[in-house]
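Folds abound. A case:
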Amino acid sequence: MKCRVCRGPAVIDVRRHNANFCVEHFIEQCERQVAKAIEAFDMIAPGERVLVAVSGGKDSLALWDLLIRLGYDVEGLYIGLGIGEYSDVSGDHARRFAAERDLTWHVLDLREEYGYDVPTAAAATRRVPCSACGMSKRHLFDRVALERGVDVVATGHNLDDEAAVLFGNVLHWHTDYLARQLPVLPAGHGFPRKVKPLVRLSERESAAYCIVRGIDYQVEECPMAAGNRHLGYKEALNTIEERSPGTKHDFYFGFLDRAAALFRSGATIDAEGLSACVRCGAPTPGEVCAFCRLVERAGGHEPGGAVPVTLGRREQP
């Protein structure tokens, strides 16, 4: 197997591109794909400050590294979710990554700041853990971005993630979610701009990037995600992709090119109906935002069988 660029020994094959790459040219390929996504969707303008949502997993750490290599002004935010050993390990990976590169990063701990963790919230609300987890992270990424005065929040959603979510939303015709399933959600109505620069890279490619760059990441999946239906959608799409390379890319980017605009009016109507939460000031369609209602229900409860995250804080001016 030879590299398509230099004809030297290749370390990875990317079947949807019908190409193999050596270490050097695979890194260049990843940089090129991220730069192409940023340019094509006007994600980040020169000179803008970026906050990366860091989990300690392969995608967020690969994204942080790639944005730095591409010359962007980036800082990270890690949220301690209190999911036992899983959170401890993921926090350690994020901390080492930042410390080894002398990067600016911030840590928020749900238990310490708000009196609850994800297992406790799931028990208190009697809803799946992913619901409380996603809501908490979205709220806090928005809050910190606005407080820090950064221009854009970048998340590590890759092509596999976006194709799987799109697959589920199309299967059930969740038109409100389809209206917002875009690589860029513009700033406005109290929200910072949110971008997904990894949408042109697969999960396998982001993992391979971490390996060749020597980035140590949390390998295990979140134990509370067991049974998440999007994992099933990923498996189904992986089966199709194995037989027909490029299917996930064509599905997702075909949606963006041919159908996404049909759903955008719904997103505009939702945004226009927002007002400030009376407790925290975040945009919300009601008097009190969903996050503050979650804190009211779950805050102050004893940990639900999980050990809270305890991380050292490090912040550069």
Summary: The CA atoms of residues 189 and 274 lie 7 Å apart. The chain has one domain: 36-217+230-298. The longest helix spans residues 129-148.
